[in-house]
Specification:
globular; 3-stranded antiparallel β-sheet; 7-stranded mixed β-sheet; alpha/beta; 11 helices
Length: about 375
């Protein structure tokens, strides 16, 4: 199969990731932080090393400011619900994932918060000018993705971070589509809260993610219970990361995330990002040449390996079914957890096809994909 659904979950995982994780599962996978025997200590060590590698990758000063979550959505919810109070104003954009939009709208329904949804520029980006022009006296937080999952455009979060710092506003970044393919420095970019999944471009397994929060940001637990620490106290610990890591951690998933980060470091983030960017732009140029194909991803200098498009007159979910069953190509069709973005693009009713790439895709696969789209467009490739 040609796998072009990496924005949902990367596949395949690097061989070292699966091999080293399964070896750990067979030999050392005990409960971390709960016991004093060798296997438990080894599990705790793997968790610590993963926290340390995350801190190094994103220039986080203190690894204990990082808490593991089951995915990016959980991390985003923690960051949003911990920091927004009655009468606060938050700035976000129409291109954000439902993990942000639904959380904000839920708080709005319960508390008197105000939300500003920014429209992007023609190149489908949000800029520091957008942010500064919409700041109010009660603006508490800016919540944005680094790269959106709808069309795969990056935002200049370093410039946006300069604005949020200037006005003493919390800056929360969703790195679901960028962590592992573009450098992120929380100090340089003035990021107060960073959220990311482990199973996408960090090449870990599903069920993994993390939240980083600095001293300016609040983080409140959403679950209460055993943490393996302060067991003489009936109250939830107040220190990070213990207060957020209730129950047994997904140590197998965390081990896979550790191995994924190590693999990325061995290849180089710049190399990974450049390969995906070049392949995405190649596909876009070829699709633009096909009459009757509408491409929504702009040809920006840098893209997050996502190409979104439609074939005129054909339902996007039907096309993805044909690509799967007849051509053995995996893409995603329909709506992409972003109703406001689809409304902005005029695709709320139709949705569109999203092809998303990883380091393991190549030009030969891209050409086969383009050939399949051409065949489907000409109607000769519709019969399954």
């Amino acid at each position: 199969m040609i796998y072009f659904d990496n924005s949902a979950t990367t596949f395949p995982k690097p061989e070292k990731v699966t091999a080293n994780t399964f070896s750990f599962l067979k030999t050392s996978c005990a409960n971390p932080g709960r016991s004093a025997h060798k296997m438990s200590i080894e599990s705790s060590r793997q968790v610590f090393e993963c926290r340390f590698e995350i801190a190094n990758m994103f220039n986080i000063n203190d690894p204990t400011d990082i808490a593991f979550t089951k995915n990016c959505s959980e991390a985003l919810n923690i960051g949003i619900f911990s920091n927004l109070e009655e009468n606060d104003h938050v700035i976000t954009s129409v291109l954000e994932h439902n993990s942000i939009i639904r959380a904000l709208e839920h708080i709005k329904s319960e508390k008197n918060i105000e939300i500003t949804y920014l429209n992007p520029d023609e190149d489908m980006t949000i800029t520091d000018y957008h942010i500064e022009n919409n700041i109010k006296p009660n603006t508490k937080m800016v919540v944005l993705s680094h790269a959106n999952n709808l069309v795969g455009t990056f935002y200049d979060i370093e410039k946006i971070g300069q604005i949020t710092k200037k006005y003493n506003i919390l800056f929360m970044v969703d790195a679901a589509q960028s962590a592992g393919k573009k450098n992120i420095d929380v100090q340089k970019m003035n990021i107060d809260i960073l959220c990311a999944p482990g199973h996408k471009s960090l090449y870990g397994f599903t069920g993994t993610g993390f939240i980083y929060a600095n001293e300016q940001a609040k983080v409140k637990p959403v679950l209460y219970g055993g943490t393996g620490s302060f067991s003489d106290d009936i109250h939830q610990p107040e220190i990070m990361p213990d207060k957020l890591e209730t129950g047994t951690l997904n140590v197998v998933g965390i081990k896979s995330l550790l191995e994924g980060i190590r693999w990325i470091n061995s290849v180089g983030i710049d190399i990974i990002g450049a390969k995906e960017n070049a392949l995405a732009k190649y596909i876009i140029r070829k699709l633009i040449e096909i009459e009757g194909v509408t491409v929504y991803t702009p040809l920006n200098d840098e893209l997050a390996g996502i190409v979104s498009f439609n074939i005129d007159g054909l339902d996007s979910s039907f096309v993805t079914g044909v690509l799967d069953l007849k051509y053995d190509i995996a893409v995603r069709g329909g709506l992409h957890c972003n109703p406001l973005g689809h409304r902005y693009l005029g695709t709320l009713e139709s949705g569109f096809i999203r092809a998303s790439l990883s380091y393991f895709n190549n030009m030969n696969e891209a050409d086969k994909f383009i050939s399949a789209v051409k065949s489907i467009k000409s109607n000769s490739g519709l019969n399954i």
